[in-house]
Structures
1.
Amino acid sequence: MGRVLILAGSDSGGGAGIQADIKAVTMMGGYAATALTAITVQNTLGVHGVHPLPLDLIAAQARAVLDDIGTDAVKTGMLGSVEVVETVAALLDQAQAPAVVDPVMVAKGGRPCCPMRRSRR
């Protein structure tokens, strides 16, 4: 396993999201680089808040990794909106690497991860 770019939400409790992905990649001997899509407020009792990050910030994080470190694979997690999915799809095209798409839409406790927004196009 080589370099893995992970695009996902952050779990402040550490049991899911980008934190869990980093642990999994590291345990398999890979190098985990990340681009956050959202910050959550959660613990073992549930998700108490979700704060999506701006699209340009998501893209800038990923491009910084791709332009310098590169990637051998991409893994997605919580994307949360049509606009984020479209942004990440464009980044996948740029990465030109195999991808594992893990469409996280609902937290373990049943709460939606992000309110779905429709594109205004």
Note: Strands lie at 3-10, 31-43, 46-52, 73-76, 99-101.
2.
Amino acid sequence: MSKRDELIAKYAEHIKDKFGETPDMDLLTKVAIGLGPSIYNVDASKVSGSDDKELATVKNNFLIKKLGLQDGPKLMEGINAVMERYGSSERSKYRAVVYYMLAKHFKKESVYNK
């Protein structure tokens, strides 16, 4: 099993444990691949749910640039909803899991079907 496959399996466990959902493994794999080498970097692979600057980066770089969403209050509401569901007890949240859940939240899974 490759390192990437191990990480994707770990992300799938987080989705099951923290969100109570069975992950779409195809979508989760595409999200992880889309993140490139950052999934192997301890710091870059996680999102701090309490860091406003980091959440703004998620909004700008992922929701607006990658998913093509229009800026507005709904974006931060979506991010906050995902962060809340992930749980405040989990300080560092996996970026791939956050992006996967945001793609599902905004019904933008089709972005990864290209």
Note: The first strand starts at residue 46 and ends at 48.
3.
Amino acid sequence: MSDYGVVFITAASREEAETIAAALVEKKLAACVNIISAVQSVYWWEGKICREQEVFLLAKTKTRLFPQLASEVKALHSYKVPEIIMLPISDGSADYLQWIQDVTG
């Protein structure tokens, strides 16, 4: 398993995304969170297809911090079932990976 990963999170609004991003960085659960506005999502929810504008967050973190990161996102999120998906970083710049190591808990 990789020591580092990126976490995909969607949020209902820019304000919610900024709140989540700030909490993750301040609590050292993520080294960096990118916020990408105006993502169009199409998904199944409660038996129907929904189309919504969402905000996408991309958090860089250590794999071992994922349970805490997911818990923090759930505590701050407005969705009943928020998207919180981690993908491993299979390779990357040694300097960047060291930076993630240095600034996260």
Note: The CA atoms of residues 47 and 81 lie 15 Å apart.
4.
Amino acid sequence: MYSCNKQGAISIIEGTDALALDYLEEIGGLFDECLNSGQPKIVFSFKNTPLVDSAGLEWLLDALEKCLISGGNLKLAAPNPLCEDILRITGFLSRFEVYPDTLSAVGSYTR
């Protein structure tokens, strides 16, 4: 299950399920809510996300593009070792700002 919380003007999407095809409709709905609430400043927290698959990676790229077009950004936080390996091997670490924890990712929007 995924949820979207606000910390000031920053939206934080996090959940306990894999960032995978089976959950993209749920995640996409939350993302759309964040995107439609003004300039999107979004953090996707991997803190409790066990895995990301190819559909999840594609969703991340699409979500980043939508944020950038709207004048915002999508930053990633707290990937576990497996998710971090997947992001590194696929080249995603160079496409996203990735932070060791959610608080750091949220704070990066003030700099």
Note: The chain has a mean pLDDT of 95.
